[in-house]
Amino acid sequence: MLDAQPKTTQLSEYTEPNFWVETTELTFELQPENTIVSTRLQLKRNPKRPANSPLELDGDELELISVAVNGKQLGVNDYSLDEECLVIHNMPDEAVLETKVRVNPAQNTTLDGLYRSGGMYCTQCEAQGFRRITYYPDRPDVMSVFTTHIVADAEGNPVMLSNGNLITDSLDQGVRTVTWHDPHKKPSYLFALVAGDLVVKEDSFTTMSGREVALKLYVESQNIDKTDYALDALKRSMRWDEETYGREYDLDIFMIVAVDDFNMGAMENKGLNVFNSSCVLANPATATDATYQRIEGIVAHEYFHNWTGNRVTCRDWFQLSLKEGFTVFRDASFSADMNSAVVKRIEDATLMRTAQFAEDAGPMAHPVQPDSYIEISNFYTMTIYEKGAEVVRMLHKILGAEGFRKGSDLYFERHDGQAVTIHEFVGAMETANNIDLTLFKRWYKQAGTPVVEAQTQYDSSKQTLTLSLRQHCPDTPGQTNKKPMWLPVQLGLIAEDGQNINIQVEPAHFVFSNVPENTRVSLFCDFSAPIKLEYEQSTDELLFLLEHDSDGFNRWDAGQKLMLSWIEQARQGQFELSDSAKAGLTRLINSTDLDPALLTYLLKLPSESYVAEFSAPIDPVGIHHAREQVVNALANALESEFKACYKRLNIQQDYAPTHSQMAARSLKNISLYYWAMASAEGINQAQQQFQHADNMTDQMAALNILVNAGEKAQAQAALNDFYQQWQHDSLVINQWFTVQAGSAVLGTVAYVQTLIEHSAFDWRNPNKIRAVIGAFTNQSLVNFHQADGAGYKLLVDAILRLNKANPQIAARLLTPLTRWKRLLPQQSNLMKQQLESILKSGELSKDVYEVVSKSLI
Length: 857
Ligand code: BES
Ligand code: ZN
Hints:
By secondary structure, this protein is of the alpha+beta class. Helices cover 42% and strands 21% of the residues. The chain has an eight-stranded mixed beta sheet with strand order 6-5-9-3-2-12-15-14, with no helix packed on it. The longest helix is centred in the middle third of the chain and has 34 residues, at 382-415. Ligand BES binds next to strand 20, helix 2 and helix 3.
């Protein structure tokens, strides 16, 4: 793991492997501290590689017990072995390799490879965890048919799972042996094994060709009442992929397992998805609407990988966005179809503008197809995922739904069972649509966020409107003088009476004729390209668009632009809510023809990190106070409207996670928030709701309000009550931690320290770390950036503590510090010093080393 001068892997140095692995047979003799893994590989030399080239196997933290080729044990002189590699020279062209290694799951705190979570065994192999299980060519272009035998104590492990179909199950003197066989070739990163004391919730799905698939969700017994929603979401996903992409599931069984200790959200292992329990378990009393929606999206995402990732996989990890970008696009389209498409678009654009644009503007900026990496785990980024999905979405926009479907059909037909590159994906789109996308491919190669400057000019004598667009893209590390990008520009013209036209254009300069006076232009409707738009619009114009644009996304965008300008005015000490703004917002709140989910977003001020992305240098304290001032102004000016809106929506009904109920609850709870910001009466109502809510959405919303708008004593009392009520439920306690650590009012450095010392906190559980340290550094900006640098120190202490124990989590925690150059000078210097102190602190994991060293360049 530790290396003084870690090596960089380059895309340009890709070569095929020397050997292919036809079949892989694994035997696990499971014991918590002493697990023996025996591996039998059928190998075939790759004729494209030089004759006599050696067999190269990856390995990490393995104790090699024995190695044999074609039945003959090798001596130490027959191979070379170092920390990362087992190399065997003089290999025949076809051979059976047998190895035996020892691993220690109980000691594995990295949650990568084979480890223990609670009392169970589980694995995580993407991207390079399989090499922590056995010696293997651990690269996605090596695809093999896997058979897995699991041998374990029967009493402790009533459930023993791996990929594919169960072939045999036998018991001998308290030891159980099961065999699983997966008929589909797959790379090692899709391997999975789970064993432990779990219960199962079963369901089934009939595919479009009439095959019956058994669906099984495995959980710890106390969670059996939290399984219904994920199974429903799974069935909806399976149907949607058949209807939208013509893709059918390809095994007779599909399993999901919930585990508590997991670095990511979930993992798409073939036939055996493993989920972070926070991303799959829900019931109305414990999960918020936001959690329900996250579950629906992640279940879909991992299921969709079965075609975009598993059947067609990546040649190498530089192609990661081939599966992740495409699959995020697919899960976003699914969520848009299941809920409100506009709201989903607003949420995704917000993520782009806060997290991805910030990444693109920082030291870790990289293209959607990166050129190099030190540690691949650091490249599961906003750029690979979110920008990658935006690029696929632009292709969809350019080709149209039908053209895109022709392209995806051809992609699956051509490349089923193969490990391919992004080039092949675009190539299928080109062939199927008879179009040249060479220029479009710059989106994959060029890092940085393009900036588009727009200007409009109206000629009243000719009734023409001229629009000019210019684009440029800032330099990013290692890339200067960028070329222009192919931008799908979707735009609308909105006449004074609110009439809209909507068109899609590509040239940079064009003239519209027969345009009436006072027509407004709405640009990049639906966020048609992931760019920063610079276009001057007056307050009146923005207010008008907020009320009248037929493009829901741009209505929201106009409102955000307006609110950003208010926050900026408040920072200058010059903000006052105008009568026209008040009147417009009143009409909005009272409008009955608007989806309440969209209305909620129209009424929401941009978050502090959103505001930060639109300012230079970033002044977190100033932003916080300015934003609070605008919140208070809105709350006070519109109190009676918010109160009435709350009362209208606060009705007794049985909870259901349906779109219409969730939309109504979101509007109800944002109304309660503003009402409580305005008056004690609102706070009292929040207190009532907190005590009597029968679902977590309403209870958590009220708790958040009490913590951030109430008196300290009232906030503490509610937090104590909540803890007493929910201390038995770890997932609810995570939410309890987040409310506190992410609060500007409560989440001070000293307070967060007490949360870390709380008995419910656990350094081995990534969810707890994210709930406390992640929430503090990403949400409580005013405290994280407190003037003396104590917030940075707290973060760095956590990073150093996790550096070796869980390098992936340690590196992820670093993100806010990598933004140091954009802060005010005092904070910027303190952040830089902290990064330097990490570098000096001795042996760093590759993960932490890469992020820190690149940030300091
Ligand atoms: N393949 C990833 C999970 C993964 C990522 C495993 C990195 C190991 C290292 C999975 O498909 C994924 O992308 N999960 C996301 C959620 C998804 C909805 C975007 C996650 O875990 O955050
Ligand atoms: Zn994924």
